[in-house]
Amino acid sequence: MVDSQQNKGYRVISMFDRLMDGQGINKKQEAFTHNVGEKTIQRDLNEIRAYLEKAKLGYHLEYVRTEKVYRLTNKEESILSKEQVLAIVKILIESRALLKSEMSDIIDKLISIVAPDKQEFIHNIILNEKHLYVDLNHKKSLLHLIWVLSEAIQKKKIIKIDYLREGETISTEKILKPLAVIFSEYYFYLIAYDNKHEKDLPIVCRVDRIQHFHELDKKFQIPYAERFQEGEFRKRIQFMHAGELMRMKFIFKGTSPQAVLDRLPTAKILSQKDRQHLFEAEVFGHGIKMWLLSQGANIEVLEPIELREEIIETIQSMQQNYSYIKVETVNK
């Protein structure tokens, strides 16, 4: 048997490709397929093992006696497990963050990481959810825009955008200092400072409403002590509506105070009496009002008094909406 370099190259690459795909290599079967001796296959496997060690890919070639095959194991656990992939896929589908075609492509690529014998299992689990996935109404591909916005943030470059607010037909030009791209409640948002106002609060722009984007050849600087921190911003904002930062107190009368702590990461329980909890939290104004109203009679706002009065006015307006029902009869 003549083992030419060409034959050897094809054989080794073939085995390496199948190993990386999660398949096992049976030395006897491999020798028969390539018409070489088992010692030759063993030398090939030793070369693959040496390459993995030298390249530091995080894999180790091991012999699995119960299966009588060689397999790659992830010794550094740097590859997502099947459980992790399934959880990520479920979260992605629920987010509805991307176009159906983009989401489907990403899900397929994530599942391809899992061992082949588990891929069909995951596909079957999410088949119905994937099929019934519904695009958001804007139906825009945002992947590239998210990327270039993120590049501008890293380079601290001032940007110019044409922004179309909901209900308007003419876009508005904005010159911004981009700070972060955040995902929340189905949408991606750009958080930025208006270039005209040095010490203003961050403004929030929905990425899908950006009609045009241009990175200007001008950088901006923010002192380290005043740098924008996405994590702290997320703790204080609800439904991506900003407003003035304020400290509030409220009584929660519901059954799950833990749900409040999860929704408002800055919240603290000050006291508890008769299954009622007194909370304090630091939040941005506009969005928190929406959440408070969604809790109905389970929440009573105490401070600040201005917010309490706003809530009262809104409830009174809602009550007027339900003061009577106009019934139209249809003559048959």
From TrEMBL:
<feature type="domain" description="WCX">
    <location>
        <begin position="273"/>
        <end position="318"/>
    </location>
</feature>
<dbReference type="InterPro" id="IPR051534">
    <property type="entry name" value="CBASS_pafABC_assoc_protein"/>
</dbReference>
<dbReference type="Pfam" id="PF25583">
    <property type="entry name" value="WCX"/>
</dbReference>
<dbReference type="InterPro" id="IPR026881">
    <property type="entry name" value="WYL_dom"/>
</dbReference>
<protein>
    <submittedName>
        <fullName>WYL domain-containing protein</fullName>
    </submittedName>
</protein>
<dbReference type="InterPro" id="IPR057727">
    <property type="entry name" value="WCX_dom"/>
</dbReference>
<dbReference type="Pfam" id="PF13280">
    <property type="entry name" value="WYL"/>
</dbReference>
<feature type="domain" description="WYL">
    <location>
        <begin position="148"/>
        <end position="213"/>
    </location>
</feature>
